[in-house]
Amino acid sequence: MKLPRYGKNSNPAHKMIVQSRMESDGTGVLTVVVNTLTSVNAPEFRIAAEQMIANSSGQVLVDCSQVEFLDSSGVGAFLHAHNLLAEKRRPVRLLGVGSRLLAILELMQVHRIFDLDIRK
Questions:
Q1: DSSP one-letter code for 5
Q2: Cβ neighbours of residue 46 under 8 Å, at least 6 residues apart?
Q3: What confidence tens digit (pLDDT) does each residue in 57-100 have?
Q4: In a domain, 9, yes or no
């Protein structure tokens, strides 16, 4: 009987925090599927963003509609993606930004760096 494999971590309790897909126009879409992006899971987002940026040719969209909280590591992960894309003169856009997430981005004074799609 073969046991299922769960990726690099081989941990069945490990929950993926980001899903990715490529649109036909070369736009990369990263969907954060957890409500917090912190030092615990931000490295996974950074890796997914690096892979998406390397494999896409257009803008990168980050669906944040489920994110309610992020700490400095989460902000750092978003900034990392922004910086990688800025080198290639490609935009990153944060979609579905709710009021809590917007308040955190404003508090950390990084809200003007990103193209934000604010959820009503």
A1: P
A2: 77, 80, 81
A3: 889 999 999 999 999 999 999 999 999 999 888 888 999 999 99
A4: no
